[in-house]
Design goal:
The structure is a single chain. With 298 residues, the chain is mostly beta strands. It has helices at 89-98, 161-171, 247-256, and strands spanning 14-21, 26-32, 52-57, 79-86, 103-105, 116-119, 125-130, 150-158, 175-182, 187-193, 210-216, 240-244, 260-263, 273-277, 283-288. The protein has 3 helices and 15 strands. The strands form 3 sheets. It has an 8-stranded mixed sheet with strand order 5-6-7-4-8-11-10-9. The longest helix is centred in the middle third of the chain and has 11 residues, at 161-171. The radius of gyration is 19 Å and the shape is globular. The two termini are 20 Å apart.
Length: 298
């Protein structure tokens, strides 16, 4: 996500790693929930499920006309939102509002009273859901503990659910954790992640690092239909990322699977990252899990 980090007040996320790139005039910030209650407390940034990477291109903070594409309006429609799972959703939303942030959708808006969408400083949507208890169970609770929050999922829209599910399961090795079908609204949601033995019946609300695919019925039949990948103008969303046990072996496997590459390991100066393209052209970064095998030592 392209952003101006100087405008952020961290929602109790911690800065896990910063990778400055002054020669290229950008910095990378990796944030995650890292309290003792967090799933990945004290883990290396490459050995976590739920992590948010912010990219700051130098000088954007001084340009009053600069505005990243949030992915939810044309012509940049594609990426949808990130999502945090919280303990007591009413109190958590009140805390966000008290901090001065606005909402795309409050809990009381519309028919879906169990989710909200806050807006970050750049207009990206941040979905807020309950991690364990149902919304009606926490109606009167006034306290919320950010140390229990989870970086739950990232949502992207896909043209053809069959092709995307095959790619993320067969090529990327994810499991289908849960499916939410909404035929009356003509869309389905598919939740995927790295959960061994999952069989499309997992409660994903207390997990981290989940990928949500949104499929709107009929898009797969339109030869001219295409979602925006976030990396061409208007820019905003950049990529999702997976970490692997052995980067060279993983990339060899992807090659055997016939993937489309945005960047092979051997391309350019950055020999420790690769980018695969999914069926919609979204970028999937592939990096080494440094806990399992030291490579870049970043």
């Amino acid at each position: 996500m392209d952003t101006d980090t100087s405008r952020y007040k961290l929602n109790r996320m911690s800065l896990i790693q910063k990778i400055p790139q002054p020669d290229a005039k950008f910095d990378l910030y990796f944030l995650a929930y890292d309290s003792p209650n967090a799933i990945s407390h004290n883990a290396h940034w490459s050995d976590r499920q739920g992590i948010l990477e912010l990219t700051h291109n130098y000088g954007t903070e001084d340009d009053p006309a600069y505005k990243p594409n949030n992915g939810n309006s044309d012509p940049g429609r594609g990426f949808g939102h990130i999502c945090i799972a919280v303990d007591n959703i009413q109190a958590a939303c009140q805390r966000i509002e008290d901090a001065g942030y606005t909402f795309q959708k409050k809990l009381t808006d519309g028919r879906m009273r169990h989710i909200a969408f806050a807006l970050d400083p750049d207009g990206y949507w941040v979905e807020v859901i309950s991690s364990r208890k149902k919304a009606e169970e926490t109606e009167g609770v006034k306290e919320t503990d950010p140390s229990t929050y989870r970086m739950n999922h990232t949502m992207i829209r896909v043209k053809d659910h069959s092709k995307s599910l095959e790619f993320y399961q067969d090529v990327m090795g994810m499991s289908l954790l849960r499916t939410n079908e909404s035929p009356s609204s003509k869309f389905n949601l598919y939740f995927l992640g790295y959960v061994p033995g999952a069989n499309n019946d997992v409660n994903t609300s207390n997990l981290e690092g989940v990928l949500e695919l949104t499929w709107n019925y009929g898009t797969e039949k339109d030869a001219d239909f295409k979602y925006h990948d976030g990396n061409s103008e208007p820019q905003g969303f950049g990529h999702i990322a997976i970490t692997v046990d052995d980067l060279d072996a993983a990339c060899s496997r992807f090659e055997e699977k016939g993937v489309r590459w945005k960047k092979r390991l051997t391309d350019g100066r950055m020999k420790n990252v690769a980018f695969v393209l999914d069926p919609d052209g979204y970028w999937v970064e592939v990096v080494q899990n440094e806990k399992l095998k030291t490579r870049a030592n970043w």
